[in-house]
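Hello, quick one for you while I still have it in my head. No rush at all, and the record is pasted right below.
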Amino acid sequence: MDAVTHQNPTYHTCPQCGAKGVEFEPQSQKLQCTYCGWQGEVPQTEGDISEQSYEAFLQKESAQQVVLTAQEIKCPGCGAVTSFDPQNVADSCAFCGTHLNVQPQTANPMLAPQGVLPFLATRQKTFTQLLRWLGRNWFAPNDLKKLAQPENLQGMYLPFWTFDSHTRSFYRGERGEAYYVTESYRDSSGEAQTRQVRRVRWYPAQGWVERFFDDVLVAATRSVPAPRLEELVQLGYSPDGLKVYEMGYLTGYRVERYRVVLREAFAQAQQKMDAVIREDVRRDIGGDEQRIDSVKTNYNAVTFKHILLPVWMFSYRYRGKSYQVLACGVTGKMLGDYPLSIWKVTLAVILGLIIAGIGLWAVTASESEESPEPPRQEQSYSPPAGSQRLGLP
C-alpha cells in the first residue's frame, strides 16, 4: 500500500484528455478532470478498516513502516512537513502562509494510514462560508476580503490516531455523606438566632470500575494548536464516514505526515481516558461528595488506527503576522482568527464613549426635571434708619 505523502501520478493524468488535472471531487465523491470533466470511480479495497495491536506494533515497529519514494517539503516558518506536488513551482505553506522556496526531499519511512475521511464540503461551498464568516467579524479590516480568493483555500488531510482499549481500574478514596446540625449565633443587632449548618461524614471507599473506550481521537499534527484542534473535531467529523485508505481520495490535496509518534499519542489518549475513568470512580463511590486518593488502571487489548481527516485551510500573512482559518472538510463549518482594524476599533471606542456620554446626560437631565424647585420667598424692603418714607400726608 502506498504511503500517505505520495500523490500517485496515475490519478493526476486524465485517461481521456491526457492532462495532469485529475483530482477527487467532494460533491460527486469521484475522480474528476479539471480540464475535460472526465469522471471515474475511486478504486476500492475490499474489507474493513483494520485496527492494529499496539503492543505487537511496538515490538516490530520498523518492519511495519513504509519506505517512501515520494517527495516532501518542510516549511521554514512553522516546521510542517507536507507532500510536495512537483507541478507547483511556487507555493505557500497551508498552515502559516510562508512562501516555500526550499528544495523538497525524499520522504522518510512512516506508517501508512488505515483510514481516510473523504472531503464532502467543496471548495466553492467553503469559500462562500468563508466570506460570510469574514463578513460577520465587523472588526476585521476591509481589505482582508481581497486575500480571500477560492484559489487561496488549500485542501489538507491532517493526521490523527485513534485508540481502543478495555480498562480495569482499582481505586481508593472516601465517600462523603452530608448531614445538618443546628447552630446558635447572634445577628448584627445582638439578637440570638439559629441556623442549619451542612457538615460531611467521611467513610473509606475502594473498588473496581471497568470501561471500554472506542476511537479515542488524538491529533498527530503540531502545526495547529491543540485547543484549536479540539474545537475543529467538534465541527462535524464522524468515524462513521471513514473509508479504507485509498490514494484516490488524496488526489489533488495535500497531506501532512504525522509528527506525534505512536507512543506519545497513546500517552495523550491515556490522559483522555483517565479523565473519564475518574468520573466513573466518583459515580461508583457515591454519596454526596467524593475524595479520590488513588486510581491504578490496566489498559488491555489496546488497538490503534492511523487516519486522515479533511480540512480546508486559509492561511495568510497580514502586516507581517500569520493568521489561520480552518474549516471542517465535511461540513464546511469554520473557526479561526483574524487581524483587527485599528480604525474600526477606534471608531467603536469613540462611538461607545459618545453613547455613554449621551446616556449620562439623559439620566442627569431626567433627575434635574424630577427634582422639585424650592418655594420662592417674598423679600420686604425696610428703609434705612434716618430716612423718611415717601407717601401721602
